[in-house]
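Design a sequence for this backbone.
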C-alpha cells in the first residue's frame, strides 16, 4: 500500500506547482515596459487592454505551450534512454530542428523548384522542416551510439554533443550564405525568443500536441515506469518495449520540433523540468508526465519574466540566454552529483 503521508505530500506539491504556475503567468500578463522622455526603459505592473492584452496573451500562451513541450520532450528522452541527463538540447535534437527550419527558410529564398521545396517545408509554421531536422538528429545519435556499444548513457551524451555541434556548424554556414538583412533575423531566432504575436492556429497545434502527449503518457504510465528498468525486467512484465520506445522516440522528437517552431532552440528547459518534477512528485509517471509539462511551462514563463528586467546592448536579453546562464551551472551540478553517487 502506498504511504498515505507521501501521497498527501505529493498532492500538496501538485497544488503548490499549480499555484506557482498561475502566479508566474499572472505576473507575465500584467508586466509591462515603459519608456520615459529621456528614452529610459522601465518596467511597471498594470492590467492590459485591447491590442496590448492580445500581444501579452499571445506571448504567454506561446511560452506555456513551448515550455510544456520541452519539459515533456525531455522526460520522453530520459525514459527512452534510461538516462536522467538526456534532453532535446543535450542530444542535439533542438539543434537539428533549428537547422532544418533555418535551411528550409534559406532554400525558400532561392526560387525555382528548390525554393518551392523550401516553401513546402515551411508550411504549418515550419513544422515539417523542424520535425525532419529533429528526426535526422535522433537517427544519427542513435546510429552513432549503437556503433559505440549501444545505448550507454555516456556514449549517448557524447554523441548528442557532437551531433548538436555539427548541426550548429551547419546553421552558421547557412547564416553566412544569406544576405546581411536576413542574417540578423536568423541570429535573433537562434538565441531564442518568445514572439509577441504568434498565429493562433500554430498555438492550437502546439497545445493539441502537448495535450495528446500528456494523455498518452498518463494512459501508459505503467509502461513508461517499466521502460526505465532493464530490458529483461521490462520484457518479463509484459511490456512491448520496442513499441513503447518507438512511440516515445517519435513523440519526444515532435514535441521538440513544435517548441523550436514557436520559440527557437531553447536550451536546458527540457533537461531541468523533469528533474524538478521528480523532486516534487516522485518517479512514477502517472504524476510525472503532467508535472514535467507544468514545470517546463513555468520555467520558460519565469525566464521570460526575468528578462523583462534586463536591458543590455540593443534591448532585452534573449530568453535563450537566460535559460543557458541559469541552466548551464545547474547541469554541471547534476553531472557532479551523478559522479559522486556513482
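Sequence:
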Amino acid at each position: 500500500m502506498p504511504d498515505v503521508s507521501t501521497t498527501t505530500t505529493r498532492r500538496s506539491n501538485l497544488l503548490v506547482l499549480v499555484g506557482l504556475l498561475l502566479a508566474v503567468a499572472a505576473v507575465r500578463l500584467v508586466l509591462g515596459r515603459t519608456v520615459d522622455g529621456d528614452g529610459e526603459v522601465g518596467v511597471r505592473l498594470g492590467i492590459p487592454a485591447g491590442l496590448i492584452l492580445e500581444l501579452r496573451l499571445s506571448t504567454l500562451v506561446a511560452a506555456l505551450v513551448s515550455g510544456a513541450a520541452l519539459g515533456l520532450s525531455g522526460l520522453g528522452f530520459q525514459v527512452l534512454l534510461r538516462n536522467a541527463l538526456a534532453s532535446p538540447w543535450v542530444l542535439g535534437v533542438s539543434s537539428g530542428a533549428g537547422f532544418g527550419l533555418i535551411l528550409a527558410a534559406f532554400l525558400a529564398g532561392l526560387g525555382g523548384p528548390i525554393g518551392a521545396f523550401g516553401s513546402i517545408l515551411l508550411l504549418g509554421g515550419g513544422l515539417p522542416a523542424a520535425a525532419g531536422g529533429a528526426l535526422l538528429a535522433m537517427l544519427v545519435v542513435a546510429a552513432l551510439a549503437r556503433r559505440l556499444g549501444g545505448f550507454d548513457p555516456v556514449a549517448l551524451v557524447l554523441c548528442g554533443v557532437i551531433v548538436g555541434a555539427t548541426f550548429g556548424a551547419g546553421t552558421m554556414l547557412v547564416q553566412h550564405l544569406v544576405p546581411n538583412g536576413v542574417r540578423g533575423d536568423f541570429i535573433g531566432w537562434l538565441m531564442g525568443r518568445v514572439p509577441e504575436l504568434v498565429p493562433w492556429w500554430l498555438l492550437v497545434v502546439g497545445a493539441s500536441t502537448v495535450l495528446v502527449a500528456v494523455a498518452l503518457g498518463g494512459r501508459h504510465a505503467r509502461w513508461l515506469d517499466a521502460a526505465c528498468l532493464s530490458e529483461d525486467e521490462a520484457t518479463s512484465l509484459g511490456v512491448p518495449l520496442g513499441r513503447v520506445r518507438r512511440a516515445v522516440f517519435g513523440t519526444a522528437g515532435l514535441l521538440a520540433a513544435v517548441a523550436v517552431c514557436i520559440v527557437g532552440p531553447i536550451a536546458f528547459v527540457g533537461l531541468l523540468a523533469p528533474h524538478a518534477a521528480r523532486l516534487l512528485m516522485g518517479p512514477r509517471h502517472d504524476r510525472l508526465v503532467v508535472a514535467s509539462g507544468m514545470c517546463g511551462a513555468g520555467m520558460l514563463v519565469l525566464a521570460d519574466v526575468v528578462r523583462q528586467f534586463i536591458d543590455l546592448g540593443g534591448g532585452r536579453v534573449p530568453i535563450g540566454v537566460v535559460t543557458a546562464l541559469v541552466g548551464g551551472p545547474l547541469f554541471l551540478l547534476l553531472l557532479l552529483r551523478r559522479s559522486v553517487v556513482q
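The chain has a mean pLDDT of 83.
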